[in-house]
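Hi V.,

Quick status before I head out on leave. The structure for the redesign project is tokenized and pasted below; the design run finished overnight.
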């Protein structure tokens, strides 16, 4: 069972992703957070296997969450979602430790 934490400042997007993933027996959604700061706090209580998040969020963005998770919890994989097609953002995500 893969434990997934959803992080996005748009509740509708979180709900849609939850609905898609809940149909797979291999996935369990362990929580939903609305910003990167909340995501970092909740990972201290119990680690998901994957943090699926938006790049652009208030307080702490997805890139900073990935950096922190990579340093503090290297077994947790971070996957950032973005509508950006900018190569610099892709590069920053990969350098931070995002999964491709």
């Amino acid at each position: 069972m893969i434990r997934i934490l959803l992080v996005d400042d748009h509740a509708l997007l979180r709900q849609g992703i939850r609905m898609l993933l809940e149909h797979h027996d291999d996935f369990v959604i362990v929580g939903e957070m609305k910003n990167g700061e909340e995501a970092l706090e909740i990972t201290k209580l119990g680690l998901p296997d994957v943090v699926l998040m938006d790049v652009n969020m208030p307080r702490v963005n997805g890139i900073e969450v990935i950096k922190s998770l990579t340093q503090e919890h290297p077994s947790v994989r971070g996957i950032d979602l973005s509508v950006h097609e900018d190569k610099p953002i892709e590069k920053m995500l990969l350098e931070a430790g995002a999964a491709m």
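Above is the designed sequence. The chain has one domain: 2-96.

G. will cover questions while I'm gone.

Best,
W.
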